[in-house]
Protein 1
Amino acid sequence: MHRMTTRLFLFILFMLAYGMASAVGFNQVLTGESSVIFGYKQMGVALDGKFNKFAAQLSFDPAKIDKAQAKIDIDVASIDTGSTEGNEEVVGKQWFNAKAIPTASFVSTGLKALGGNRYEASGKLSIKGRTLEVKAPVTFQSAGNKGRFDGILTIKRLDYAIGEGAWSDVDTVANEIQIKFHLVVTAAPNKK
C-alpha cells in the first residue's frame, strides 16, 4: 500500500510540474524584431511602405485564447513611403493629420481559433479619429519561449478619411490598403 501511495504521489507531482511548465503565456513584444508594413496601389502600381515606430502590448496563452489581448499603437508620423516627398505629404491634414492625431491604434476584442496555428482576431481600429470594427486572419508559430504572430488586415482608406480632397480619387491611390503585421514575442511560464 505504501509503494502505491508513493507512486500516486509522484505521478501527481509530475503532472503538476508538467502542467506548470507547459502553460506558457506570450506577453512581451520585441519591437526591434517586429514590423508593421502596408501595401497599396498608386496609379495602378503596387507599392509598399512601413511604420518605423510602434508600441505593442500582448497577452496570449495558446491554452486560454478566450483571455487573449492585444493593443498596438502606431506613430503615424514615423511612416516611410519610400520617398521624402511622400512622407511629408501623408502626415499632412488631408492624409493622417499627424499633428492633431499622432497615433493610430488597434485594440483586440476577441480571438477565434480556426484550427492548426490559424486564428481570426477581431477588434477596433482607430485611425484619424475614426474607429471601426475589423477582423484579420492571424497565424501563430512558436519555438521554445519565442513566438511570432503574422497577419494581414485589409482596410478602405476612405472609411478613415485617409486622403481627403483631391486625394479621395481612388484612381490615383486605390481605396484598399493592406496592413501586414509581424510581431515577435517572448514568453514566461504562467503562474497557476
Protein 2
Amino acid sequence: MNPAAIELKNCTKTFRGKIAVHDLSLTVEPGTVYGLVGDNGAGKTTTIKMLLGLLPPSRGSVSVLGCDPQKDHVEIMKRTGYVSENRELYDWMTVSEILWFNAQFYSTWDNDLVQRTMRSMELNPKQKIKHLSRGMRAKVAMLLAMGHKPDLLILDEPSSGLDPLVRREILEHIIAIIQSEGRTVFLSSHLIDEVERIADRVGILCDGDMMRDESLDAIKETSKRIRVAWNGDMPDPGQFKNVRRIDQSGREEAYFTQCFNDNVLDQFRERHPASLEVEALGLEEIVVETIRAQKHFLKSLEKVG
C-alpha cells in the first residue's frame, strides 16, 4: 500500500511562545488535490515550510512522500515541485539559462515538456529574468517546479498579485498537470475560487487551528445559508442549535450552518415561520462564515474569561 503523499499528525509550531499552528493533522492521498485556505496569519505558509523541511514542528510528526522532511530533505526535494508567493529567481539569467541550470539538479527533467510548456506560456527564452513582468516571472517559477515531473507539487499562493488573465493561465496549467499526469497537488491560496475549481479536499485554517478538513463536496453539502421570515414575535437566535445568525432585516433573518440536516431545519419549522429557504453557498462564502464563526467564538471566550 502506497503511503500518503502528505501526512501531518498533531503538529504544533510555536515562535517565541506564540502558536502559529496548533495540533494540526491532515492527510493527502496520492493523486489528489488538497486546498489549504484561511485568512492572513492562519498558518498556511508555516504548514508548507514544515512540509518542505524548512521548519521543524515543535511537536508532532510530518511525512511527505513517505519521508521525514527533516531527515530526508534532499530526497523530498528531488520528488517535489515548489512555487512560493515570492517567486525569487536569478535575475541575471535568461529564461533558457535558468531552465538549463535547474535541469542539472534533476535526473527526471523532461526538456521536451519544458519546451512545449514554455511556448504555450509565450515565454521568450532569450529574455532576462529581471526584465520579465510579474506574471511572466510567475510562469517561469511554475515551469521550474513542473520540469522534473514531480510526484508532489506544492504551491504557496502561486497567483498572488497577478492579474486575472495570468491567474487563469497558471490555473489552467495546474489543471493540465492534474488531468494528464495525476500528480498530487497541495495548494495554499487566499483566492478561494481557484481552490474551489480544482480541489478534491479542503482544509480551512483559522489562527493556526483546523476548522474543517473534508472533501469539497462534503463541505458544500453541509454548509448552507438559511433564510427565515417570521409572522409574530421573533424568537431569540440563541435558542437555535448548530446555526449562527449572520444577518437581520426587520422580521427577516439569515443563519449560517456547517452541519445542515433536517433537525436543523425542524427547529425553525416548529415556530411556523412565514417563509423558510435554504441556499447553497460557494466555497468562498463558506470559508468567510466559518472563520467569522470561529473568531466570534474566541471573542466570546475572552469576554467570559
Protein 3
Amino acid sequence: MRLSEHKYRTTSRIAGQLLYVENVHAARIGEVVKVLGPHNIALEGEILEIVKDNILIQLFGETRGLNTENLEIIFTDTIRQVPLARDIIGRRFNGSFEPLDGLPMFYASEWRPARGYPINPVARLGPEEFIETGISAIDGLNTLVKGQKLPIFSCAGLPAKELVAHILQNARLRESSKRFAVIFVALGLTFNEYSFYLEALQNIESEFVAIINMADDPVMERLMAPRFALTVAEYMAFDEDMDILVLVTDMTNYCDALREISNARKELPGRRGYPGYMYSDLASLYERAGRIRDSKGSITMIPVITMPEDDITHPIPDLTGYITEGQIVLSRELHQQGVFPPIDVLPSLSRLMQKGIGPGKTRDDHRDLANQLYKNYAKGRELKKLEAIVGRDGMSEADQLLLDFADLFENEFVHQEKQTRSIYKTLDKGLEILERFDLLQHNLQKKTEA
C-alpha cells in the first residue's frame, strides 16, 4: 500500500540488516531511506539494488523487533552526504559521522556526497616530496611520498596498532610552511583498541580528524567510514590546500564487512568467499588519494591490512598490492627477536621512493646509502640460511662479517624501540653502520694479505 509519494508499506522480507521492498515506483541507488517501526523504532538505510520495482535496502542498525507488516519506508530522494567546514579539525566521529567527543555538531559550510569519485587520471600529478614518519625502515629505505598509497601488511599478534600510533603521532612534512593534517580511520575496533587509539590521539602534535567504527556498530558503517574520511580529506586537500595523510586500520575488517553484505545478498562468491567486485570496491577508495593539477594540496594514504593466516597471497593483500604503490611488510620473526617496529625491509617496497628523496628533498647521499644497506643486509640474510646448515664455524670470516652486519642492521637501524628519528638521524645511523662494517672488512683484508 502506497501512503504518499515517497512512503511505502510494502516490505516483503527482512534478512539480517537487509530489507526487501516491493512495488516501489521512484528510487535510485545510494538513496537514503528512513525506516519507522513499532515502539518508536527509527532507522536509516541505503538502497543497494534495484530490480524493476523491487528494492534492496541495507539498514544502519539492528532489525530485532521488526516485522514486514508494521514497517513504514520513507524514501528521502537524497544520497548520503558529508558536512564540511574548517571547524572539522580536531574532532572525533563515529561511522555514521556523528560526534564522539561530546561536542555539538559543527555548522556545515557545504555538503558533499560521501561516496565521492576517484581522481581523473588526466588531472593527476605524480607523487613527490617526502613525508617523514619518524621510522627509519620507512623513511630511509621505503620512503613515503606525498600523494602515494603505501599499505602496511601485518599479521595477527604483531604490533601493527603501535606502529600506526607512532605514525599518527610523528608524521610530518619537512617543509614547515605547508599545513599538514592526519585523518585517522579505525574500523571494527574492540574497546581496548579504542582506548589505545584515544590515548594516541590525545598526544598527537599534528592537526587531525578521527572517524571511529566499533566492532559492535552496524556493518554498513564500516563500509561508509573510510568514504566519509576521504570526502573530508578531499575538502581539506583540494579546497583548503592542505597536505593530508589518511591512516586506515584495519582494511581486513572492511573487506570482511563487504563479504558479509555480499553473502546476505546471496551473491556468487569469488576467492575465499569475497565478492568478485572487491577489487573495484577497494580501487574506489585507494584511487581517491593523490595530487591534482593546479592544486597545492595532496592526499596520501596508508591502509593497514592484517593478512589472514599470514598469507600475503590472500585476496585482501593481493588485490591491495595491485592498486597501491608498494607495501610495508611486518615480520613475525623480527617481532619474536624483540625488534620494534618489526619491518622486514627485503619484501617491503616503496615504488615512488625516488620521487621523494635526493638533493633538496632529503640528503644527497640518500639513494646510495639505501642501496648499500639493502645489498649488505640481503647478503647477510641469505647467509643465515647457510649458517643454519653448516653452523657459523663452518663459514668464512667474510661471510661471518655479513652475518654480523645483518644482526647489526636489525638491532640498531630497524629497531628503535619507541623513539622517533628524523630523516637525518636515520641516514646518520645507516652511515655509521656502514662505516663500522667497512672498517671490519678493511681489517680482515689486511689480515688476509699479511
Protein 4
Amino acid sequence: MKSKVFDISITGKYFALELPVAIIKPFIDRKLKRVKVVARFNEKEIIFHAAFQKRNNNYYMLFGKRYQRELGVLKNDIFQLQFFKDNSKYGVVMPEELEAVLQSDFDANKIFESFTAGKKRSVIYAILSYKTSQTRIDKSLLLCENLKRGLHKNTELLKSF
C-alpha cells in the first residue's frame, strides 16, 4: 500500500507537517497510523518512519530538524512526500547491533519484547542515536545487562551503574 507522491512545505514554527486528508485517508481507514515515509528534495531522498497525529480535526506528522538537515529543506521550501505501509516489526528500523545482541541474550530479549510498542521504539531510537557501530554495540550490551537487573525506566536503561 502506498500513497501518491505529493508536494508539501514546512510552514509553521514547529516541526509538524499538516497532511492532506485525501492522501492519508486510505491509511487512516485501515487504522494504519504508523507509516514508512520517503521524502525527496533536489535529487536527495531520505527514508524514515513516522506516525500520523490528529489535532483539531487535522492530521500532522513530525518532521524534525534532523530530517530537514538530511534533506536540505528550509521553511517554505516545497518538497515531496510519499507514504508506504509500514511492514517493519517495530515501526522503526532495528539497528543490526541491537538485534544481534538481543538475539544472543534470551532473557534480555524476553524482557524487551514484553515492552509496549512505543517503549520498544524509544529504546531503538536511543540506540540509533549513537553514531558509531561500536558505541551501538556497547550500549546494546549495557541495555541487556540493565534489563536483567530489573531496570526499565528509559533514563536508566543506557546508564552504567
